[in-house]
Amino acid sequence: MNDLFLRACGRQPVERTPVWFMRQAGRFLPQYRALRADRGILELCQTPDLAAEIALMPVRELGVDAAILFSDITIPLLGVGIDLRIDPDVGPVIEDPISSARDAARLRSLEPAEDIPFLGQTIRILRSELDVPLVGFSGAPFTLASYLVEGGPSRSHVRTKALMFGDRVAWGALMDRLTDLVVRYLRYQVAEGVQAVQLFDSWVGALSPDDYAERVLPWSTRIFGALDDAGVPRIHFGVGTGELLELMRDAGADLVGVDWRTPLDRAWQRIGFDVGIQGNLDPAVATAPWEVVERHADDVLARAAGRPGHVFNLGHGVLPETPPGTLRRLVEHVHDRTAAPQPQGAAR
Ligand code: CP3
Q1: What number does the ligand 1 atom closest to the CA of 55 have?
Q2: Furthest-apart CA atoms within the chain: distance in Å
Q3: Active-site residue (options: 32, 147, 188, 212)
Q4: Which has the closest alpha carbon to 281: 301, 307, 309?
Q5: Percent of the chain whose predicted confidence (pLDDT) is above 90
Q6: Cα-atom radius of gyration of the chain, to the nearest Å?
Q7: For 49-88, b where at least 16 C-beta lie within 10 A, e where not — what string?
Q8: How far from 267 is each of 229, 264, 315, CA to CA, in Å?
Q9: Of all atoms in ligand 1, which is nearest to the CA of residue 317?
Q10: Sequence-ordered list of residues with C-beta below 8 angstroms from that of 344, at least 6 positions apart, any chain
């Protein structure tokens, strides 16, 4: 197996920097769009053969060093009976949003083997097919809470913040329940065979450091602590988190994922070189002419400076407009640029 990704996560020496892309299984791939033409995204997630097929597409098409499970952050919510749908170009929409401690108490405990058995099946198919590591994932409590409280995507997260600032008991109850759900969800994925996990706290960049420290960090810390003995690398990712990086590091993951707004070397300094880093090419750059992509990719690599513990990725998910050929070339380029010199006389 190609274990470059796992070795980099463990900050061990690697002969090439590993590359994968958030949202590498998705709409920028024509093969995905073909499967998606007459089926909803949630239906695909719940059909193990198809979900596995989709997760394999970018491994075959792009030559990435890791696969990500094809699922969605809403799947465990669906598992506990939340009435939700995903609207194209909008995102998750929840019919009956949460606004009180009483509503939070509606969130029952997740029993993955009964509630979402299709996920275990997808993982088992993938492990039998893949020759690169499989990354599992979950939304983080704040990001899940944002969808549950807003009822859908939000720019300002104003309802979520109103609950967080206005009703400490309800917020604590909601975060407790979501933390329990995330831990059960991720431990299930590990038990079924995922070889690394990523916690997506995509929208947590909406908070100030003090508010993050007080109202989110304790729960994220609990999640990584509960995975301490799981034996797989843990990645902690958010968008717009330049000022939160030290606090996110304190939550205890093995790698912190950073977006493109913070130069990689500065981000790494902030989290400390004893923790790995993942990122951080601007996804929009991957839609530009190759010369631009190459220049930006080289900049990321120069800032990583060959230190152990760098996993190359975009700073957020692949945009649907991205030409697959550009990502294929990008994977090759990162591999070539970071290739360790072969020992004298070694067979190539
Ligand atoms: O390749 C992969 O990364 C694996 C699959 C994956 C999906 N969702 C499938 C999907 C992953 C890792 C996610 C995580 C996810 N889902 C996050 C965290 C990551 C991030 O982007 O910050 C969030 C916030 C969601 C919620 C969600 N689901 C959104 C915002 C959307 C997009 C809505 C749209 O149409 O633009 C979805 C739908 C979704 N999930 C798609 C995919 C491939 C696209 C929808 C489609 O095919 O219609």
Answers
A1: 1
A2: 70
A3: 147
A4: 301
A5: 97
A6: 19
A7: ebbbbbbbbbbebbbbbbbbbbbbbbbbbbbbebebeeee
A8: 27, 5, 12
A9: 21
A10: none
| Selected catalytic residue, list 36, 234, 249, 270 | 36
The strand pairing partners of 281, in sequence order, are 314
CA distance 27 to 127: 23
Sign (positive or negative) of CA dihedral 250, 253, 254, 259: negative
Are the beta carbons of 287 and 323 closer than 8 angstroms?
A: yes
> What pLDDT is attached to residue 341?
75
Mutate to test the pocket of ligand 1, among 60, 86, 147, 160 (most ligand atoms within 8 A of CB): 86
With a 6 A CB cut-off, is 101 part of the ligand 1 pocket? no
- pTM of the predicted protein model: 0.96
Which residue lies with its CA nearest to atom 2 of ligand 1?
23
**pLDDT for residue 100 is more than 60:** yes
Task: Examine the residue annotation and report whether 147 is marked as an active-site residue of this protein.
Answer: yes
| Three-state DSSP state, 26 | coil
- Best CA proximity match to 233, nearest among 186, 270, 284: 186
Choosing from 65, 72, 180, 254, the catalytic residue is: 72
Distance 344 CA to ligand 1 centre (A): 46
- Are 237 and 199 in contact by the 8 Å Cβ rule? The answer is yes
The residue nearest atom 18 of ligand 1, judged by CA position, is 200
Torsion of Cα atoms, 333 then 339 then 345 then 346, to 10°: -90
- Residue 257 Cβ contacting ligand 1 at under 6 Å: no
Rounded Cα distance, 23 and 64, in Å: 12
Protein residue with least CA distance to atom 10, ligand 1: 72
User: Is the backbone of residue 108 left (phi > 0), alpha (psi -120 to 50) or beta?
Assistant: beta
> What are the structure tokens assigned to 48, written together?
């193990």
Which of 337, 283, 285 lies closest to 310, judged by CA?
Answer: 337
- Secondary structure (3-state) at 225: helix
Q: Give per-residue pLDDT as tens, 251-305.
A: 999 999 999 999 999 999 999 999 999 999 999 999 999 999 999 999 999 999 9
Q: Is 329 an annotated catalytic residue?
A: no
